[in-house]
């Protein structure tokens, strides 16, 4: 039993398995003949059109049932639109228009293969199971109670399936981003340890190690740039969805409190979905922060070596690492790091207070 818990797998093997799962599920380019690609896009397009029609009908029915005002409908509409745009980007745009960027990303990741590290498979699976529990807990609860959907109709079921599918695509991208950041941070840890060992090596080995470290730094920088270009939009969608979903649920809670407090139990289940989005947003932000910290540790190591030994190679690596420091971006709108958390929750609190001030007089 204990031997099973010690099963080790390289991080590259795990990463390739995640990519294999997302062959059709994720935003990656489809490999194969033209017939397979056409069949995929036709099937996906038909499903998307029918699902969107069902979603629009269900949206109109739900807002009419709850007798929501224009401002309330607008918040809900923004939330639904965020999921829909993400679905289009993941299912169509990402697979076709970002092919070159994805190919460059996978090429850079393959360059980092030889520096792979082993992972405890049991612990890794436990983390994935926790991710799945966070996601499916909210979806299962809403499905069980029905929320505000009348799941006896086929269009309501299809609307729910579409919503779950789009949310699942977003969940998959969270796992993909998290694992990629783990690999990048482990590579920074590798070159950090390699730089510490260079001091005791001869001149030939030093030059060889410096060249290898320089190559890894450049590859890591290129990989982060490709991630920002190919998957930055998904992170923007996740953060936007988290923000709007919580505003929607809070706003809906106040509406139900005023008109029909017997439905409060149903809206409480929807808060689970909001919490899931926020937890996943924090996971993404902290994963990016982890990579930046590992890069900063490498820079500090080189600064220390240069200050104590006067090694000019260390000074060169400091300048290179600072210039190519990893910076994650949400589609160019803002940087993704730990400094984003207080800004995110501060803005969220501000909007919640504004909504409460407008609603408090009518409660």
UniProtKB/TrEMBL annotation:
GO process annotations (BP): chemosensory behavior; male courtship behavior; sensory perception of taste; signal transduction
Membrane topology classification: Multi-pass membrane protein
CC terms in the record's Gene Ontology section: axon; dendrite; neuronal cell body; plasma membrane
Subcellular location: Cell membrane
Keyword Cell membrane: yes
Primary location recorded for the protein, binned into one broad class: membrane
Keywords (A to Z) from UniProt: Cell membrane, Membrane, Receptor, Transducer, Transmembrane, Transmembrane helix
Residues annotated as transmembrane: 38-57, 69-89, 121-143, 158-178, 231-257, 263-285, 340-360
A Pfam family that the UniProt record links to this protein: 7tm_7
InterPro entries: 7TM_chemorcpt
Key word Membrane present: yes
Source organism, top-level taxon: Eukaryota
Entry-linked PANTHER family: GUSTATORY RECEPTOR 8A-RELATED (PTHR21143:SF104), INVERTEBRATE GUSTATORY RECEPTOR (PTHR21143)
Family from the record: Belongs to the insect chemoreceptor superfamily. Gustatory receptor (GR) family.
Function comment: Gustatory receptor which mediates acceptance or avoidance behavior, depending on its substrates.
Designated name of the protein: Gustatory receptor
């Amino acid at each position: 039993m204990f031997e099973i818990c010690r099963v080790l797998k390289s991080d590259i093997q795990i990463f390739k398995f995640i990519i294999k799962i997302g062959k059709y599920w994720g935003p990656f380019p489809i490999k194969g003949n033209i017939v397979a690609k056409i069949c995929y896009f036709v099937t996906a397009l038909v499903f998307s059109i029918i699902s969107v029609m069902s979603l629009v009908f269900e949206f109109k029915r739900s807002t009419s049932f709850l007798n929501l005002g224009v401002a309330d409908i607008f918040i809900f509409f923004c939330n639904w639109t965020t999921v829909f745009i993400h679905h289009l980007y993941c299912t169509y745009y990402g697979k076709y228009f970002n092919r070159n960027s994805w190919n460059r990303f996978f090429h850079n990741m393959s360059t980092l293969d030889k520096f792979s590290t082993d992972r405890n498979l049991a612990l890794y699976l436990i983390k994935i199971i926790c991710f799945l529990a966070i996601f499916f807990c909210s979806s299962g609860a809403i499905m069980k109670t029905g929320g505000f959907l009348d799941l006896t109709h086929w269009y309501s079921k299809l609307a729910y399936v579409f919503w779950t599918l789009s949310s699942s695509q977003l969940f998959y991208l969270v796992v993909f981003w998290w694992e990629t950041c783990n690999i990048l941070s482990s590579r920074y840890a590798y070159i950090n340890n390699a730089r510490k060992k260079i001091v005791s090596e001869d001149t030939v080995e030093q030059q060889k190690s410096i060249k290898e470290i320089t190559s890894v730094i450049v590859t890591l920088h290129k990989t982060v740039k490709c991630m920002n270009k190919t998957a930055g939009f998904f992170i923007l969608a996740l953060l936007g969805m988290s923000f709007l979903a919580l505003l929607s649920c809070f706003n809906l809670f106040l509406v139900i409190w005023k008109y029909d407090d017997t439905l409060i139990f149903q809206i409480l289940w929807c808060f689970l979905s909001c919490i899931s989005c926020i937890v996943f947003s924090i996971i993404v932000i902290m994963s990016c922060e982890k990579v930046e910290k590992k890069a900063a540790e490498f820079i500090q190591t080189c600064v220390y070596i240069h200050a104590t030994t006067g090694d000019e190679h260390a000074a060169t690596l400091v300048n290179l690492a600072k210039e190519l420091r990893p910076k994650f971006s949400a589609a160019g709108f803002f940087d993704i790091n730990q400094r984003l958390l207080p800004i995110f929750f501060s803005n969220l609190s501000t909007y919640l207070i504004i909504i409460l001030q407008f609603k408090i007089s009518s409660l």
